[in-house]
Every structure is written in structure tokens, then in C-alpha cells.
Amino acid sequence: MWKKLILGSLGAIVAVFGGGFAYLSLKQPAMRPPSTRRVEATPDRLARGKYLFMHVANCADCHSDVHFDRFATPIKEGGLAVGRPWPTELGLPGTFYSPNLTSDPETGVGAWTDGELSRAIREGIGRDGRVLFPLMPYGEFRNMSDEDTDSIIAFIRTIPAVKRKQPITTVNFPVNLMIKAAPQPVTAPVASPDKNDKVAYGKYLSIIGGCRTCHTPAEHGSPKPGTEYSGGEKFGLEGKGLLAVSFNITPDNNTGIGTWDENQFLEKFHQYKEYAEGKAPPATPENFTVMPWLSFNGVEDDDLRAIFAFLKSLKPVEHVVETRPLAAKK
Questions:
Q1: Co-location of 7 and 129 in the same domain
Q2: Model pTM?
Q3: Torsion, CA 307, CA 309, CA 313, CA 316, rounded to 10
Q4: Are residues 80 and 176 in the same domain?
Q5: Domain presence at residue 193
Q6: pLDDT along the chain (330 residues), means of 10
Q7: Which of 83, 215, 248, 278 is within CB 3.0–4.6 Å of 100 for a Cys-Cys bond?
Q8: Burial class of residue 49, CB neighbours in 10 A (0-12, 13-18, 19+)
Q9: Containing domain of residue 154, as a range?
Q10: Do 37 and 158 have their domain in common?
Q11: What distance in Å separates the CA atoms of residue 227 and residue 320, rounded to the nearest whole number?
């Protein structure tokens, strides 16, 4: 799983690593000083930021204390944005923790500046200057518009402080050196997408929502050319008998969503409303998923329609995927 999340950064360094250990040890990641600009918390930004944080960009999913043993990992009561450890069974190269994003100044981000938050979200550099592991999808979030980034920051400032210190992630050698190539400073303004262009806006949402990352097969840590959105990436806790494989969401008639209509697509998201309201069942080999259905249940219908329009515009890729290979065969 972690190889997928690093995407192309590892592959680009492997050739250098053999003869460049010293170089990589001394190399500093690409970074710029954080902006000193302060984000104004307007009502529109707060509403948009909450929507993105809780639903589209899945910030709440990854930075909250969750029930790993239930369908789609619902957030525990009082666990919003307090951070969490990641299961070792995922096979990540180290010991991983999502940081506390509440406004607590000691254990959360209450003391961070807006510029430091923006740099971490889109450029992968922590407040202390260290490289964030690409489990934090800053490679995709660098495509997030300036306005949407500001909106998320404005909303984060409203999350009540919870004093819960999370350990700092430790990345194993040699991956700790390899990820130095991942950060890329955002040096030009990123405009907001035109919502009237459904395909373009749907593409934008699919990127910041993680669709492209999770539904594109990887080869040697990089997206496999010509297979975008065709599924096949493995996610799960195989040691616990829980494994999910991402579905082909290209418009292929036989193996993807080519025969789906818009209503079917929307219904796929709506069907988990009861689960999102606190009734998610235990995770089993038959229903295990890392797809954030509970947060995506709150994505607005017009946004889902835009995503569907974009997916329908893609090149069909024939790729048979068994989404739950460990489920009991009937």
C-alpha cells in the first residue's frame, strides 16, 4: 500500500540510491519558507472548509480516532481530528501516526501559522521542516485551489482543542531518504475550478478526493501508464483476513462502470446513509473496505454528478478486478 502512496518519488530515486547514499543523506528536500499571509475566516470559507475536511478530501477520516474493526472505520465519539496510530498490519515502512489537528496549542495545531498549515497540506513539509510521508496525499493536494486550501485551514481553526499528543512518525531506512524527493513547493497561484464545467470540476474533485490515487494501478511505486482509474490496488489487513481491492471506475462496459447511469452512481453513495449515521456493522472479509463511504455519503449530489461526468469521459480500460479476494466463496 505504501508503495502506491509514494507514487513516482521512489522510482525516480532508486537509480541514484545505489551510488548516492551520501548524497541522499545530505540532500535537503525542496521547500520554501511558509507564507506569512493569514486566512480570513469568512462564513463561506468555514462552510466550504467543513465540507471538504469532513467529506471530499477525507481529512477527518485519516486524522481521527476510528473504529478499525467496523465497516469503513467510523469516527469514535470525541475522536474527531485528534490523530491516531496506523495499524502495523498495513505494511507501512515504519511506525506511523496521524497528527492531532485540533486547535490545542501543545499537542495539536493551535500554535501553527496558516502558512505552515498550507505548506504541510500541499507541499508535504511539517512545521519543523521534516518531510511528511506521502500517506498524507500532498502530491494530490498540491492541485487543491488556493481558496479551498484556505477554507480547510479556516475550518481547522474551529475544531475544539483536545489535548492528545501523538508520537512523531518514524520512517524506516532507506525510505526515509527516498521520500526527500516527494515535496514540491507550490510557487504559483492555483485557481478554483469552474463548477459549470462538470467534467473539469469532476476531475478536480476526483483528485483531491483520492479517486485517482486509489483507483490507479501502481508499478514499481508509480502509476502504470494507460491504466488510470482502472482499479486493482490492494488495501487492507491481510494478517487479519481483511483485504479490499479498488474497483475499475473507467467506463468499460464489461469490467468498469460503462453501463452505469447517473442515478446508479449516486445511489452507490447514498446506500450507506444508515451506516454514516452510526450504524456501521463489524468489518468482515465480505464487506471490508478502505473506501471512505461514510464521509463520502455527505458529498453533495451535484459534486457526485460532476465526478460521474468526468469518469464517463475517461478512456475505457478493460481490467477485471476481484474487489474482496478473501471473502468466502459461495
A1: yes
A2: 0.92
A3: 70
A4: yes
A5: no
A6: 45 49 74 96 98 97 96 97 93 95 98 98 97 96 98 98 97 94 95 97 98 89 87 86 95 98 97 94 95 97 98 97 86
A7: 83
A8: buried
A9: 2-181
A10: yes
A11: 12
